Amino acid sequence: MGPCGRVLWTLLSGPKGRRGDTQARAFSLWSTLHRLLNPTELVSHWTGVFEKRGIPEARESSEYIVAHVLGAKTFQSLQPVLWTQPLTPQQLQSVQELCSYRLQRMPVQYILGEWDFQGLSLKMTPPVFIPRPETEELVEWVLEEKAQGLHAMGAHGGPRILEVGCGSGAISLSLLTHLPESQVIAVDKEEAAISLTCENAQRLQLQDRIWIVHFDVTSERSWTHLLPGGPVDLVVSNPPYIFHQDMGQLAPEIRSYEDPVALDGGEEGMDIITKILTLAPQLLKNSGLGDSTLQVLALPN
Amino acid sequence: MSTLGLLRGPAALARVCSGPQGLALGEKWRLLSPGGPASVLQVAGKKDLPALLPLEESELEEQFVKGHGPGGQATNKTNNCVVLKHVPSGLVVKCHQTRSVDQNRKLARKILQEKVDVFYNGENSPVCRQKREAEKKKQERKKRAKETLEKKKLLKELREASRNPVETTAGSDRVSRDASRE
Description:
heterodimer, A: alpha/beta, two-stranded antiparallel sheet, 11 helices, 7 strands, 43% helix, 10% strand, B: mainly alpha, 3-stranded antiparallel β-sheet, 4 helices, 41% helix, elongated
């Protein structure tokens, strides 16, 4: 085996877990191929490695990582002509490095350092909570409410929105993007979330329409300074709602890498939710319907 | 309900509403023909084709690959692949173009709408027409490029001929002069 072969062997074998096993596999792979792998082969290889180590979403993880190294967001969106072109040693090296993180159960979004939400590309850094796909539907609902002119989100500009627990800024920035006249106050009790939301807002050039405030809604501090323009039209949130006793059962990806504060909803899973609902009448503009009607949209687990 | 073990998105979402209004759950995902009130949700990018057959949401079956077990915060699924089936025709589209499940659902509907239109309208479908036009334009461009290339080649040859110290007759003199004037 020349120097190229040696490099390739190391790149394919991953961390020296079950040594004999991975070595034998890598060697047989090399001996049959005698060339650098193309994306399709590489994905198959790493899928096998992940599956053997019990990593969930083995194929998906493999595809995202390889696609990312080749500059695409998904494997399917990679130009088909590239599927059979060999990767450079540098690219193989990158893939290996990223895959080694996956072997440590790091979520793909943190490995890639970015993820998409409602068509927006957002930076992701641990331990800030990764936006879930279901939350995209929450945003869709808000947009539909606006499109139908319901309640306070009527014709005259705005709406003014308060997001509780903004995390990476996914919900806020998505709403700002789709509602060009809206303004958002985004609040989170974790400094890391505040920084990340800020960074994402700047990446998307939305920093002029969002106020990002480090604030704990469960604290006794006054809300009034938080809402300089007075009450808002809409309060939106994806608050923590996991039962405290269930926290230990979460997958390693979540347990070891994401901020538990973003997940733990207390004994009944309702701590933050209750707090938001209690404060809602003070936060929200009177919709002019007499008794203020509070509309709660909830996605079931 | 079906052998695919489907989770029907809209029907699985509950709404706790103290006001009188309530959207019919099925409405949320209907793909309207161009100009409908939900046009704000249409996918940007590729130019919209004129008046394709609209897709009825009730005729679609969507397979959420992430649909097993508890969802939401308790899991972190990255598989955003959307598999969408148009039941009457049996056509299936698999879309994993983006990392956003929402975008993939919209794209899947757009692609499926085109496929369904071709299925029922055949050659008359705007999809086919657009394809033919695009192909025609491509061929024309190719032809023109080829002609330009040949012209340049001829020009080059003529210039070289006039530069070389070849015995010139009155006739060839005229040719080279004409060529250089072009």
